[in-house]
Amino acid sequence: MMPQLGMSATVDGEWGVLVVSGEVDLAVAPELRASLAELVDVGVRHLVVDLRPVTFLDSTGIGVLVAAAKRLHDADVTGSLRLVCTDERVLRVLRLTGVLAVFLLHATVDQARAAEGHPAADPASEERGG
Asked: What domains does the chain contain, in order, with CATH numbers?
């Protein structure tokens, strides 16, 4: 049985939000990669990937996200990729792989869009106004 992956994207100027649901693994990584590339190709420079509906994330999925972040950080793009994630299982994978040093992580899409700073910034301090 093929893993189920769902994706829906919205674009608002240079901002894009990709909501990903289901299992993100080797079987569906090409589909995720293509969706992320398509958003960049249509002019999205600041991408929020909403992983809240994701039930499983493996290293292949993380690799796709890292590659998309690198593309958005290229000199000709100068964009950002931010993650929205609240599921403890997915957060554990992100922590164990060390990619939280690469991504801005937020609890909601609105927080991700409002946040500024570099990947090591503490989003919680921005909510407190500090």
From this structure: 1-87 (3.30.750.24)
